[in-house]
Each structure stands twice: as structure tokens, then as C-alpha cells.
Amino acid sequence: xxxxxxxxxxxxxxxxxxxxxxxxxxxxxxxxxxxxxxxxxxxxxxxxxxxxxxxxxxxxxxxxxxxxxxxxxxxxxxxxxxxxxxxxxxxxxxxxxxxxxxxxxxxxxxxxxxxxxxxxxxxxxxxxxxxxxxxxxxxxxxxxxxxxxxxxxxxxxxxxxxxxxxxxxxxxxxxxxxxxxxxxxxxxxxxxxxxxxxxxxxxxxxxxxxxxxxxxxxxxxxxxxxxxxxxxxxxxxxxxxxxxxxxxxxxxxxxxxxxxxxxxxxxxxxxxxxxxxxxxxxxxxxxxxxxx
Length: 292
Fold this sequence. Notes:
mainly alpha; 14 helices; Prenyltransferase_related
């Protein structure tokens, strides 16, 4: 049986997508307010779990169940191009699921349960019968929760030796998860033709490109406004100001994106999203000041 090249496997697992959950896990570690001495092995394991394992699994699962859509939108991808022959895409998704669970088991109950939930969401997003991605509201919510909130909460819980994070940390994690819904929408603009043909009701398909751009920007901005208010309430005015300045910069870029959403969705992902996740880390440091 023909086997895929290592380069095709690496492309299937999409290392560039691992950054958001790894970053969110790190934010949770910072927000815990605990010092990392003696915890570096579990921190490294958690970062690997969030990115090269659970996130990579989600990419393989998505590409396998999206192979017909990708044949229309991005035929150069490993599966539709034939560089990932036969059922190898499915095999890799299953293997990476098992490897993720094995690694999660090594970092404790919290890490294991978080990995189980993340993997369930990954399969539910792409695979029938649920295939949450058929509706942009539900699918993007699942991705936002998995990529940002779940990873943040896991990082904080692992540092707290398995205890649930402080309620303020949970609140920030959920707010940034909500904002990540808009980030997920940005990724849907490139797939409009195939999504429309295959009955996938992404927000750009349902609302049109201008409407989806407005919704994405609002969904990203409103949670950050709430975060700024919370940081002010917690006495972290300097951090709140920094997040506000980042939001102002995003607003300027959002205006350009909304003017030509089809042309600038990928551009905004590259220049606007880094500002968003920078605010996450600033908020985590602010919370560290509160809890310590």
C-alpha cells in the first residue's frame, strides 16, 4: 500500500495553526499567578498537547471530512491532490487522536479531561453526524472554545495542581473564546465557493461577505471592550489601557478589511489577529497581578 511522504503528513497537520492554542495555554499559565519552578515538564507537555497533538489532530480530521470541499477550494492540499493516498488521512487523524490521549494522560486528570473535550469538539466539528461546521454559528463557537478558552483554562488548571482556575481567569478565557469566533469566520472567506456548493452554511455564505465581515469584527471587538472594563474594575488600569490601544489599532485595520472583505480577509488575519492575541497575554499578566 502506498504511503504518504513525510512532507505531506506535515502539511496535513498544519503547524502554522498550532500557535493559537499553544499561546492560549501559555496565557493560562501566566494567569494562574503561580511560579513555574518545578513545573516546566508539565508546562512543556501542555504546550505540546495543545498544539502539535490536539490542534494537529483537528486539522487532520477536518481535512479528511472536508476532502470534497477542498477539491473545489484548495485542490493542492494533500488529500485532494493525491499526495495523501487512500485512507491515510483518516488513519493519521485516528493515530494522532490516540497519541494526544496518551500524552494527556501523563500530565494529570485535568490535562486528560481537557484533551478529551478538545478531541470531541474536533471530531464533532468536522465529522458526521454532528459536523458542526455546517453552521457557521455553531462550528466557529466550537473552534473558538477549543482554540482559546479550553487551552487557557487547561494551562491555569495544570499550574494550580488540578484545581479549577479563579473565576476571573475563567471569565477572561470565555471572553477571548467568544472573540475567537470572529477569527474563525475570517478563515471561511477563502472557502465560499466550495462551501456554497457542498451545503456548508458558513457565515460568509449565510450573510454574504460584507455582512460576515461586520459580524466578525463586532464579535472580536465587543469581548475586548468587556475585558477592558473588567481590568479597570480590578484595578489594572495600565493593562486595560494597553488592551484598549491594541483594540484601537484593530479598529483601524477592521475598517480596511470591511471595505473589501473578500480581498482582505487573509490580510486581516495576518495583521489584526496578532494584536488580538497580544491583548490576551496582557490580560493574563494583569490577572496575575490581581491573584498575587
